[in-house]
Amino acid sequence: MSEEKALIFEMSKPGRTAYSLPPSDVPSPEASERIPEGMLRETPAELPEVSELDLIRHYTELSRRNHGVDNGFYPLGSCTMKYNPKLNEDVVRYAGFAQIHPYQPEETVQGALQLMYELQEDLAKITGMDRVTLQPAAGAQGEWTGLMMIKAYHESRGENRRNKVIVPDSAHGTNPASAAVSGFEAVTVPSNEQGLVSVEELKKVVGEDTAALMLTNPNTLGLFEKEIKEIAEIVHEAGGLLYYDGANANAILGKARPGDMGFDVVHLNLHKTFTTPHGGGGPGSGPVGVKEVLVPFLPTPVVEKGGQGYFFSYEFPHSIGRVKGFHGNFGMLVRAYTYIRTMGPDGLRQVSEDAVLNANYLMKRLETHFDVPFKQACKHEFVLSGNRQKSQGVRTLDMAKRLLDFGIHPPTVYFPLIVEECMMIEPTETESKETLDHFIDVMIQIAKEAEENPEVILEAPHHTPVKRLDEVTAARKPVLRWQKED
Amino acid sequence: MNFRYLPMTEADRREMFETLGIDSVEDLFQDIPGNIRFQGRLNIPEPMAEPVLTRHMKRLAEKNASFDQYASFLGAGAYEHYIPSVVNHVISRSEFYTAYTPYQPEISQGELQAIFEFQSMICELTGMDVANSSMYDGPTALAEAAGVASSVSGKSKVLISRAVHPEARAILTTQAKGLGLEVKEIPCHDGVTDLEELEAASDVDTAAVILQSPNFFGNLEDLSRVEPIAHRHKGLLIVSTHPISLGLLKPPGEFGADIVVGDTQPMGIPVQFGGPHCGFFAVTKKLMRKVPGRIVGQTTDEEGVRGFVLTLQAREQHIRREKATSNICSNQALNALASAVWMTALGKVGLQELAKLNLDKAHYARERLSRIDRVEPLFDQPFFNEFALRLNRPVAEVNRVLFKEGIIGGYDLGRDYPEWAGSMLIAVTDMRTKEEIDELARVLEGLS
């Protein structure tokens, strides 16, 4: 049985409070003595009035209706739902990190600047790039930042006609969207039968109007673009640049570097590869690394080290300008830094080796029960197709809902778009073999249910706080807020 | 060195190799061509054991002067306010912070409901019909709003007041290059937007008029006079605001704003060197389907029970790709949750009380500091919790003296407004005591 949870507004009762403010120690005349009447609020905002225990019970109950990595396995492809270390959460709350202002004089925040400088250096080494900016707030913002730098680069060379950005048909949706908001036209290049960028097709679309190719490597099918050197040559030859979408960087730490593959710009998702928590949708952090040719265009400020210590440099005359308020999502930088210092070079390499091993192990053990569209070794993630089960009357969406009954978050479904009934599975390196084996058992059981008892899947989930929700009505007759009844 | 986040034992790995029919993990990396396979070790520092790393991080943190040790009068877009203890307790529940975007609503009802409540609270505060689930921060929300205005109006010119935060204007300038917008800055007069200049610049090609109130100098803009100018030529009125001020001030929605943006940082989010904070984005019903980012909507499940889902997704990049209203994917959900908890804790009455404290303390400070010889207010306008003072000496120098006395001084206005070199922007929030304000006055007096 589904159970409804009251809204916090519905628990409100005038007179209850959950705050404590000191009495004013300065003169406190009526606000109207200081602010013109027409600018003063007449009706107060209807915020809830509850006691502190009401508040805590409400949010505790909400948290129990939510599934995170700490609750159970979360093999959501391309999202890298690995463990979020607790130490990182402690460190970021130190007053010296949490209670400092971005406009304090540089000499009073040397620790923060040192951390940012060292993180820039580490990320440059990890990606094989020359310089890094930590400003972008998320992967998509990193993409936009990188593309704006590419735009500025071409313009600086008088090549304003380069208005096309090439993206594979397996790309994340943010790639074409970022191209559009950067003023480019997105051109799609199809994948070949092996699930890789078709070099032949690429040659057809590359030309004088090519600004860049955006590529995820390994791609969203979990496959390494083996011909990347040739691809890079084709694009560079035509005068374009190469953008690396770092969403899948968890596969290559210490094993390969985008800089060595021929990429000119890279973004990383600290909330994927470097363990900063996803927070239910954010905040993230999307540092961008560039090769020497793009350094003059970096957004400012960039942290540098001089004789007097660390400082913010604005000395980038061709900078694309600012992309984010203040200095980026600093709190996420502190967490990522702490993680990198926990792991070191051998630890990071082991991360990718285990992530890849785990994905291949899952794929191997599931291959007789589900269709595997691409049979070669995968990297940190792989895709299955639910086509066989579809013919038995059960769709991928239904199987995803059935997984919820086992306390497992489903894989990414129906993406990438080029695989029918797609399930994209990314176990990450922080899961044990026992967890992987349990997942395999559950998946095999679901495959069996599809053959023998599809109803149990079609009616899933059975054990969640609510059943399947009516998304069509939600979009057709939107109710997007609570409102006080008159 | 052992790695506590990696559970695989050597025995586990060997078993898995056997299943895969391989001898070593290297066999799984054969698809990376030899000439680009990374040889050797990454040139980054060696790992640190937990106690060693904890000490290292404490040392780094101690190299920063924090509000714990200093009384801060810095604002300029990031403010130290009261944060009830409950906020950190709620956002530390890992069911919230270790979850992804709620793509599977049946096991994400907690996050979805919390964000639905957040959206409702933002609508209440701003006087708008619809709010999204969050943006990266206030400045990027403002730039996105300009993009929305351009796309709904089919026009490309935006007018932005010079009294809008300099960083927001800088980001808008960057964004404008991608979106093909023409940005025109409107000058100020006595610390508020010059409305005659605004009126003169506004024409049929204007997609939006963008103002901030309280503006960067802390002054309140007369939105009742701005609204007709913005709408005369069918452009949108975009207002950026400080959410706590709305405990006292008439919300932009009541003045006819079409889009209201800002940052919820003052509501329960530590300043933390400028991020992560949390942008908000609220609109009229008419613009509902043009909003960037995630939106949570109410619906029912198969049994008719109320539940929540991500909705109106046809606007978003994962569906529309290059035709999306924005490229935003990750947002600032956990910070939105922090602000929702904060707004719940303060509640209807607490928010008004807190806003009044800010108003009173800032007015006391302005009056007290203005009595100092050679110190005078830069502007004469109604203001909320921040104001500008002419010090008639280099602000950096003054701040060095203040720092020695345990005070983090205000923002050097000369950084962005050369004409006001020697003037300081001072924020006085509920966290400052009369004693601290008097101490600031005493040190400044010593300089005169």
From TrEMBL, chain A:
It catalyses: N(6)-[(R)-lipoyl]-L-lysyl-[glycine-cleavage complex H protein] + glycine + H(+) = N(6)-[(R)-S(8)-aminomethyldihydrolipoyl]-L-lysyl-[glycine-cleavage complex H protein] + CO2. It holds the Pfam family GcvP2_C. Gene3D superfamilies: 6.20.440.10, Aspartate Aminotransferase, domain 1 (3.90.1150.10), Type I PLP-dependent aspartate aminotransferase-like (Major domain) (3.40.640.10). Residues 13-32 are annotated as: Disordered. It is an enzyme of class 1 (oxidoreductase). Residues 352-452 form the Glycine dehydrogenase C-terminal domain. It comes from the Bacteria. The modification N6-(pyridoxal phosphate)lysine is found at residue 272. Keywords: Oxidoreductase, Pyridoxal phosphate. Its cofactor is pyridoxal 5'-phosphate. Residues 33-299 form the Glycine cleavage system P-protein N-terminal domain. InterPro entries: GcvPB, GDC-P_C, GDC-P_N, GDC_P, PyrdxlP-dep_Trfase, PyrdxlP-dep_Trfase_major, PyrdxlP-dep_Trfase_small. The keyword Methyltransferase does not apply. Signal peptide: none annotated. Its EC number is 1.4.4.2. The glycine cleavage system catalyzes the degradation of glycine. The P protein binds the alpha-amino group of glycine through its pyridoxal phosphate cofactor; CO(2) is released and the remaining methylamine moiety is then transferred to the lipoamide cofactor of the H protein. Belongs to the GcvP family. C-terminal subunit subfamily. The glycine cleavage system is composed of four proteins: P, T, L and H. In this organism, the P 'protein' is a heterodimer of two subunits. HAMAP family: GcvPB. PANTHER family: GLYCINE DEHYDROGENASE (DECARBOXYLATING), MITOCHONDRIAL, GLYCINE DEHYDROGENASE, DECARBOXYLATING. This is Probable glycine dehydrogenase (decarboxylating) subunit 2. It comes from Kroppenstedtia guangzhouensis.
TrEMBL record, chain B:
It catalyses: N(6)-[(R)-lipoyl]-L-lysyl-[glycine-cleavage complex H protein] + glycine + H(+) = N(6)-[(R)-S(8)-aminomethyldihydrolipoyl]-L-lysyl-[glycine-cleavage complex H protein] + CO2. SUPFAM superfamilies: PLP-dependent transferases. It holds the Pfam family GDC-P. Its EC number is 1.4.4.2. Residues 4-444 form the Glycine cleavage system P-protein N-terminal domain. The keyword Cytoplasm does not apply. Gene3D superfamilies: Aspartate Aminotransferase, domain 1, Type I PLP-dependent aspartate aminotransferase-like (Major domain). Keywords: Oxidoreductase. NCBIfam families: PRK00451.1. The glycine cleavage system catalyzes the degradation of glycine. The P protein binds the alpha-amino group of glycine through its pyridoxal phosphate cofactor; CO(2) is released and the remaining methylamine moiety is then transferred to the lipoamide cofactor of the H protein. Belongs to the GcvP family. N-terminal subunit subfamily. The glycine cleavage system is composed of four proteins: P, T, L and H. In this organism, the P 'protein' is a heterodimer of two subunits. This is Probable glycine dehydrogenase (decarboxylating) subunit 1. It comes from Kroppenstedtia guangzhouensis.
